[in-house]
Amino acid sequence: MRIIFVFLTTLLVSGVISLPTQAGDRPIALAAADGQPAPADAQPAAPDTPATPMTKQARLDKLFSELKRERNEKAAERIASNIWNEWFQSGSASIDLMMQWSQKAMNEQKFDVALDFLDQVVTLQPSYAEGWNRRATVHFMMKNYGKSMADIDRTLQLEPRHFGALSGLAQIMAETGHKQSALEAWQKVLAIYPMMRSAQNQVATLSEELAGEGI
Q1: DSSP-assigned beta bridge partners for residue 28
Q2: Rounded CA gap, 154 and 156, in Å?
Q3: Residues 64, 192: contact at Cβ < 8 Å?
Q4: Exposed end of the chain (fewer CB within 10 Å): N or C?
Q5: Of 143, 183, 134, 126, nearest in space to 162 by CA
Q6: How would residue 53 be classed by pLDDT, with cut points 50, 70 and 90?
């Protein structure tokens, strides 16, 4: 359940650097590391091998590491937004289209239509965590809390750091009167995303309420 919120690569260049002399002459190599001149026929250093593109999992790991360390709320929101962008990428044009259709149906409160699309999404690509999370959201909006929790559980099996799904779980627990479980879910959210303001507020509120009930 979504809560509304550059990759820089440093290239280290190494090797022998040569300077050209007059036209037609061989380049004069600069001194080697031991202070001795390099042989006149020394081969130029091979060009650097292009960096291998990061996998989706590697990008997510990097983003989650940054999210946990960030202490500026706005900067954390930008990182969280990048994480959502990674989560939304299914790798399938047809899945992406059905996700768009399901969102449109949700916006129009046509929940049965949205479920039809999402049932197809999770059937065709059961390893796509965001399909399960989106369906959990629809069930939550329909107050089908049991079905929503089942889909949240599946989402968290695929992506244990899914702070959106954990937030949804916390809301269900709160709405069904399980304040301690709601508090624990929000605390898990903060362990992943410390600067999420809504989670901070909920932890403070539920902690006070539970403390008062214990008196």
Answers
A1: 19
A2: 5
A3: yes
A4: C
A5: 134
A6: confident
Write out pLDDT tens, residues 149-207: 999 999 999 999 999 999 999 999 999 999 999 999 999 999 999 999 999 999 999 99
Please give the Cα distance from 199 to 128 (Å, whole number).
25
What's the CA gap between 36 and 40, in Å, rounded? 12
The residues, ordered by sequence, that sit 6+ positions from 28 with a Cβ below 8 Å of its Cβ are 18, 19, 21, 40
The four Cα atoms 97, 2, 129, 142 give a dihedral, to 10 degrees, of -80
As a whole number of angstroms, the distance between CA 197 and CA 70 comes to 13
Specify whether the CB–CB gap between 112 and 138 falls below 8 A: no
- Tokens at 75, concatenated: 């900067």
**DSSP E strands: which ranges in the chain?**
18-19, 28-29
What residue type is 180 in one-letter code? Q
Secondary structure (3-state) at 172? helix
Q: 52: pLDDT confidence band, cut at 50, 70 and 90?
A: confident
> Three-state secondary structure along 102-163?
HHHHHHCCCHHHHHHHHHHHHHHCCCCHHHHHHHHHHHHHCCCHHHHHHHHHHHHHHCCCCH
Angle between helices 163-175 and 145-158 (to 10 degrees): 150
Lowest mean per-residue pLDDT among 31-35, 46-50, 105-109: 31-35
